TrEMBL record:
Transmembrane regions listed in the UniProt entry: 6-29, 41-60, 85-109, 121-141, 147-166, 187-205, 217-239, 260-281, 293-315, 327-348, 354-373, 393-412, 424-445, 515-538, 573-593, 645-668, 680-700
Domain called NADH-Ubiquinone oxidoreductase (complex I) chain 5 N-terminal: residue spans: 75-125
Gene3D superfamilies referenced in this protein's UniProt entry, alphabetically: 1.20.5.2700
Biological process according to GO: ATP synthesis coupled electron transport; electron transport coupled proton transport
Catalysis performed (reactions): a plastoquinone + NADH + (n+1) H(+)(in) = a plastoquinol + NAD(+) + n H(+)(out); a plastoquinone + NADPH + (n+1) H(+)(in) = a plastoquinol + NADP(+) + n H(+)(out)
Protein name per Swiss-Prot or TrEMBL: NAD(P)H-quinone oxidoreductase subunit 5, chloroplastic
Domain NADH:ubiquinone/plastoquinone oxidoreductase chloroplast chain 5 C-terminal per the UniProt entry, residue ranges: 492-650
Gene behind this protein: ndhF
Organism of derivation: Herbertus javanicus
One Pfam family matching this protein: Proton_antipo_C
Known role: NDH shuttles electrons from NAD(P)H:plastoquinone, via FMN and iron-sulfur (Fe-S) centers, to quinones in the photosynthetic chain and possibly in a chloroplast respiratory chain. The immediate electron acceptor for the enzyme in this species is believed to be plastoquinone. Couples the redox reaction to proton translocation, and thus conserves the redox energy in a proton gradient.
EC id: 7.1.1.-
Principal subcellular localisation of the protein: plastid
Subcellular location as annotated: Plastid, Chloroplast thylakoid membrane
Family, similarity comment: Belongs to the complex I subunit 5 family.
Length: 701
């Protein structure tokens, strides 16, 4: 087994080597792009599959009691600084390796079909392999310097993949927005790393925590400076994991291909921030002030993300804000010390969200031939509906992911989210209320997405009748809407519309191919059972609470997996299950019927209270809290105004003084040249006159 651990570096090396091979094929044999597509995808999938099997074997060795392994090689040796590179294998590393390789492999299999007809097919797999390799390298890193290098590689790959369709202006702007926003967090992370090195003299995780604890015990450290360094360090995860206030890049990142959205939101970029906090958890725990900041940043992000998600019309952006909210749950859990619950939710959410994004890709793939290829059409839920009839497998798998995110047992996210909710109530009741309310919003917006997409009747033909009903795409589907009234009146008088058979006059959505469906079906397995299995592992007594001890969590464990304990667990979950079902019920009342019948239903007296939701609340949510507009005003427009002011200052003041001096000299010379007649007597006269005037002025003064 020692040979395995010594060669664990092969896990990131295999996808990196695949990326190099694909890049070489693309560079040296550009004419063979079409014929070598399947070969390139086979190389990427095969190499990552090998890395996945090595990761599984490493995980099994950790489960069976293998010790933590560290391997180092000297990189830079100096009298004052010694930098080493290597890898660290512990339970946290093993779990993250499994997460990244499994989700990455499924996404690659899915992408083989999804991206088949794209001109950048080989380039996509080249970037995808490099992205996966960067995340795997980050997970294996034993020190802060190495983790920062791979941290930047992950950011670079996300830039390339978000802007994959760079000829589309929105995609080009989105990748730049993600890159710039993450540079803010990365600069803070670098300052934090350097600050803790100045305090402890080490970049290694274990040495850093031990030395910091000794300095803290002996009161040999400035606690204010340590808190500042920790906050700077936390800026990195704030940006990378899309936490408030640096979350603004995540919804725009949906401009990339859907498989990339699945990978970013499930197992790579946004998971990197959670991983770093988990890796540095022992250090953060020594700084209660920083832990409180982490906690409330997570709580605000969870609530904000859910509040914005409830009104989004774009399918992928709705899921993006869902990811933001769930990441807030994880940060919240870490901030209150629930290390195990945060990592448990990271795992369950990753598989559920990967399933949802790949399911949304299946829907978009089916909608594009009907409504067009622009995201405003193919991703707009207004033009969906009734897809369960045409895409039954996609609908069922998407429903599994929806129920998991809603927190319905026995699906995966129920077990992890419920633990966070319970711990938040114990930690601080108001925090528990925020977490529980956010759980209700989660159930509402996820059910809303499902109902609008898969239930009712198909509405894609409404876009084809754009000339007749031009304003249908602007429906708010939230409370007062005069446009919907007009459309209903038109439909009442339009027999051809009400009797329009989609099967005769228009294209119908169709189920995705078997490769894409295979990926969805595979992901339903962990989405359905990994939470239950994980919970049993948590209760299993293997040298005292298996996963808690395994993940270094000091928390009270349960003794056995008796049925009484299982029943008690479900009883404690009654509040969260109740709030989830309330959210689903409200979503059903709003969106469980045909969209164009909503207003008729809401006109009845029984549903009047649902109708009077303030439109200002809807506008605030739909416009993403006006945060982008605020940043645009605060940074973009103010910076442009400042640069314009500096340009005016430079052009008219500074240059004006210089140019004025030159002009004055020019005209002065022109005037004086007429007094230059070559007569010495004239020169003496002017000289004596000036001297006389000077003496006279001095005498008078």
């Amino acid at each position: 087994m020692e040979i395995l651990f010594q060669n664990i570096w092969l896990v990131p090396f295999f996808p990196f080597f695949a990326s190099v091979l694909l890049g070489s094929i693309l560079f040296f044999f550009p004419s063979s792009m079409i014929s070598s597509r399947r070969i390139c995808s086979f190389i990427s999938i095969s190499f990552l599959t090998i890395a996945m099997f090595i990761s599984f074997h490493s995980l099994w060795q950790q489960i069976t009691g293998s010790p933590i392994h560290q391997f180092f090689w000297s990189w830079i040796v100096n009298k004052n600084v010694i930098l080493e590179i290597g890898y660290l294998i512990d339970p946290l590393t093993s779990i993250m390796l499994i997460l990244v390789t499994t989700v990455g492999t499924i996404v690659m299999i899915y992408s083989d079909s999804y991206m088949l007809h794209d001109q950048g097919y080989i380039r996509f797999f080249c970037y995808l392999s490099l992205f996966t390799a960067s995340m795997l390298g980050l997970v294996l890193s034993p020190n802060l310097i190495q983790i920062y290098i791979f941290w930047e590689l992950v950011g670079m790959c996300s830039y390339l993949l978000i802007g994959f369709w760079f000829t589309r202006p929105s995609a080009a702007n989105a990748c730049q927005k993600a890159f710039v926003t993450n540079r803010i967090g990365d600069f803070g992370l670098l300052l934090g790393i350097l600050g803790f090195y100045w305090i402890t003299g080490s970049f290694e995780f274990q040495d850093l925590s031990e030395r910091f604890l000794k300095l803290l015990i002996h009161n040999q450290i400035c606690i204010v400076f340590a808190n500042i360094c920790a906050i700077f360090l936390f800026l990195g995860p704030i940006a990378k994991s899309a936490q408030f206030p640096l979350h603004i890049w995540l919804p725009d990142a949906m401009e990339g291909p859907t498989p990339i959205s699945a990978l970013i939101h499930a197992a790579t970029m946004v998971a990197a921030g959670i991983f770093l906090i988990a890796r540095m958890f022992s250090l953060f725990q020594m700084l209660p002030f920083v832990m409180e900041i982490i906690l409330w940043i997570g709580a605000i992000t969870a609530l904000l993300g859910a509040s914005i998600a409830i009104t989004q019309k774009d399918l992928k952006k709705g899921l993006a804000y869902s990811t933001m909210s769930q990441l807030g749950y994880m940060i919240l859990a870490l901030g209150m010390g629930s290390y195990k619950a945060a990592l448990f939710h990271l795992i369950t959410h990753a598989y559920s969200k990967a399933l949802l994004f790949l399911g949304s890709g299946s829907v978009i793939h089916s909608m594009e031939p009907i409504v067009g290829y622009h995201p405003n059409k193919s991703q707009n839920m207004i033009f969906m509906g009734g897809l369960r009839k045409y895409m039954p497998i996609t609908a069922v798998t998407f429903l599994f992911g929806t129920l998991s995110l809603c927190g319905i047992p026995p699906f995966a996210c129920f077990w992890s989210k419920d633990e966070i909710l319970i711990n938040s109530w114990i930690h601080f009741p108001f925090l528990g209320f925020i977490a529980l309310f956010t759980a209700g919003l989660t159930a509402f917006y996820m059910s809303r997405i499902y109902f609008l997409t898969f239930e009712g009747h198909f509405r894609g033909h409404l876009l084809l009748n754009n000339n007749k009903y031009p304003n249908y795409s602007s429906i708010s589907i939230w409370g007062d809407n005069t446009i919907l009234n007009k459309i209903e009146e038109q439909k009442m008088n339009d027999v051809s519309f009400s009797n329009m058979p989609i099967t005769k006059n228009f294209l119908r959505p169709k189920e995705s191919d078997n490769i894409m469906l295979f990926s969805l079906i595979i992901l339903t397995i962990p989405t359905s059972f990994i939470g239950l299995i994980g919970e049993f592992f948590l209760q299993e007594q293997i040298d005292s609470d298996f996963l808690s001890t395994w993940l270094h969590l000091s928390i009270n464990s349960l003794n056995n997996t008796h049925s009484e304990i299982f029943i008690e667990l479900l009883q404690n979950a009654i509040p969260s299950i109740t709030i989830a079902f309330i959210g689903i019920l409200i979503a059903f009342l709003f969106y469980g019927f045909q969209l164009y019948d909503i207003r008729i239903i809401l006109k009845s007296k029984n549903f009047t209270f649902l109708y009077f939701i303030p439109k200002s609340l809807y506008n605030w949510s739909y416009n993403k809290g006006y945060i982008d507009e605020f940043y645009d005003l605060l940074f973009v427009k103010s910076l442009r105004f400042f640069t314009q002011f500096l340009s005016f200052l430079d052009q008219w003041i500074i240059d004006g003084i210089v140019n004025g001096a030159g002009i004055l000299s020019f005209f002065g010379g022109e005037v004086l040249k007429y007094s230059e007649n070559g007569r010495i007597s004239s020169y003496l006269f002017f000289l004596v006159s000036c001297m006389f005037l000077s003496f006279l002025y001095s005498y008078i003064i």
